[in-house]
Amino acid sequence: MKPIHRIAIVDDDDGVRQSLSSLVRALGHEVRTYPSATAFLADDGDAPDCLLTDIQMPQMDGDQLQAELLARGCTYPMIFMTGFPNEALRARVMARGARAFLVKPVDGDAMARCLGEALGIHTSV
């Protein structure tokens, strides 16, 4: 049986959170969703096994979230998504250890593949 991993999804778009949550659950993982980076940071629960986060969000963007998590010593894999890609941002988050930088709308197969690689497992949708 495939291991269950805890996946955190941070995105200010409710529809994106719901669709990603459905996909990740279908892959057999536990999901926690957050409408903002600050809501994620305020959660005192167990750390996720992987973080899926949007880049463009109000208050604190995904780039700032990554910097804060790294400053706190968090080492779990992070996958970034954005509808507004730019090379400088992609290079920055990847240089700091991001596992993927995906352009929205994210294809379900691509997300499953990236998530599986980040978790060290093989996935299929």
UniProtKB/TrEMBL annotation:
SMART domains: REC. It comes from the Bacteria. Pfam families: Response_reg (PF00072). Residues 6-119 form the Response regulatory domain. InterPro entries: Bact_response_regulator (IPR050595), CheY-like_superfamily (IPR011006), Sig_transdc_resp-reg_receiver (IPR001789). The modification 4-aspartylphosphate is found at D54. Keywords: Phosphoprotein. This is Response regulator. It comes from Stenotrophomonas aracearum.
